[in-house]
Amino acid sequence: MTKNKRKGLITQNSVCSRMNYLYQASQLMAESHHNILAAYYGKLCRNVGTKAQIHIAPAVKRTLCRRCSLPLIPGVNSTLQMEEQRREPKRKVEESEESTLKAKSKKRRRYRPRRRKGSKPPIDTDHQKIVTDDTYGSLQLQCHLCQSQRRFVMDTRQPKECWIEHEDAIDHVVTLDKEKQPQQEQK
Amino acid sequence: MEQPQHGTAPLQEYLTDLVIPHQRCNVNIIPDHITMLHGTKSKKQNSKKRRAHKSQTLSRREYASLGLNTLPTRQMSYEQALPLHKLWRGYIREHLNLKEGDQVPQIHEPRYEEFSKLLVKMDFHGAKLKVIQSKCETLVGIAGICVMDTKNVLKLLGTDHRLRTVPKSECVFGMHVGNMEFTIFGQHLNIRPAERSVKKIKGFIEPFM
């Protein structure tokens, strides 16, 4: 029994290192603009994972394009842009929402922003309803190779600040003497 | 809901088939009296399903039409593949658990079997390979960095920036890792690269030449 387990571990290890290598290779190829090779390595990395029944970590998996498994790097082989909003249909939904609030409550919850620690609580519910129309933009990420798109709903009302730029993110600041470059470390 | 007349023809045929043969001539079906419902799924459901399917993974045909199965012969230069080879050297060190000054285990050593199994399961993308021996004489001497690995073929990028396709089953390849030298019989690599890391390998394989 133990022998079997150990054997399994060894094979898993070798498969993991292979997948790791393939992922790195695909990133490398994507950076040097060889999209076809990059997609090939990405696909192979995925296939090896499916054959050996190993899950890729979701955060890593999402960096690969869903359709062609090209590692998406915005600006190099994919475009990231704000999408123009279609306002009118959204308004209609909101008008009907008040009359059938109970029925639609499930649907609405999906669009409600999650309150983060730093953000202020909303002052007025009525006020919020009016604002909701303009607060959500959507980000669009388009792959250059297979033209597939991914959308992310984004809350534009929140302060436009990346997590790294946020004050809480800085744990401590290390200053290097030689180069005199401040280096920030994440929590 | 009423359907246009051409939709009712198979139905009329079906209904007449149900009647006893000698009374079939008496059957008279007026198309206006037939009321047909649409199929179990509404149009809306159908369209939703199709859209969801479209955004999913590429089919083989779409994959080929994007040109992902073929690589251009003279697009990549040898220098661009060198970082890949560098990455591969790190990978093979990790994969075979090599340390500085390690020797290839002899056949009587206990770790020989384990080592050779690892060797079969390694990844060839980025390795510097050279054809040592082949049934086809023109293939002998081709060297380069392996860029693509399919079931029957290796694609080697030579120093003259040209991509060459070499069949595996006819060739014997040579490979260097540090101070170690390997001879690989291509015949036994005829497995899809994704399956090779999972496939069970027999203990004894005879060389073919």
UniProtKB/TrEMBL annotation, chain A:
One of its GO terms (cellular component) is nucleolar ribonuclease P complex. GO terms for molecular function: metal ion binding. Keywords: Metal-binding, tRNA processing, Zinc. PANTHER family: RIBONUCLEASE P PROTEIN SUBUNIT P21 (PTHR14742:SF0), RIBONUCLEASE P SUBUNIT P21 (PTHR14742). Residues 103-119 have a biased composition (Basic residues). Residues 80-129 are annotated as: Disordered. GO terms for biological process: tRNA processing. InterPro entries: Rpr2/Snm1/Rpp21. Belongs to the eukaryotic/archaeal RNase P protein component 4 family. This is Uncharacterized protein. Residues 83-94 have a biased composition (Basic and acidic residues).
From TrEMBL, chain B:
GO terms for cellular component: nucleus; ribonuclease MRP complex; ribonuclease P complex. This is Ribonuclease P protein subunit p29. Component of nuclear RNase P and RNase MRP ribonucleoproteins. RNase P consists of a catalytic RNA moiety and 10 different protein chains; POP1, POP4, POP5, POP7, RPP14, RPP21, RPP25, RPP30, RPP38 and RPP40. Within the RNase P complex, POP1, POP7 and RPP25 form the 'finger' subcomplex, POP5, RPP14, RPP40 and homodimeric RPP30 form the 'palm' subcomplex, and RPP21, POP4 and RPP38 form the 'wrist' subcomplex. All subunits of the RNase P complex interact with the catalytic RNA. Several subunits of RNase P are also part of the RNase MRP complex. Residues 37-59 are annotated as: Disordered. It comes from the Eukaryota. Residues 40-54 have a biased composition (Basic residues). It comes from Drosophila willistoni. InterPro entries: RNase_P/MRP_Rpp29-subunit (IPR016848), RNase_P/MRP_Rpp29_sf (IPR036980), Rof/RNase_P-like (IPR023534), Rpp29/RNP1 (IPR002730).
